[in-house]
Amino acid sequence: METAKGMRLHIAIFGKTNSGKSTLMNLLTGQEVSMVSDAPGTTTDPVYKNMELDGIGPVTFIDTAGFLDDTTLGKQRMERTRKVIDEIDCAILLEGVDGEFLERIYKKNIPTLSLRYPFPEKERILNELKILLKEKKKAPGLLDGLDIGEGHFLLVMPQDESAPAGRLILPQVQTMREILDRGYTATISTLETMDASLRHLQKAPDWIITDSQVFPEVYEKKPKDSKITSFSILFARAKGDEEIMIEGARHLMGLGENARILMSEACTHAPKEEDIGRVKIPRMLRKKLGDNITIDFSRGIQFPEDISDYDVVVMCGSCMFQRPVVQSRIEKAREAGVHITNYGMVIAAAKGILDKIDF
Question: Which intervals hold domain Hydrogen maturase F tetramerization (predicted)?
Answer without folding.
Answer: 244-356
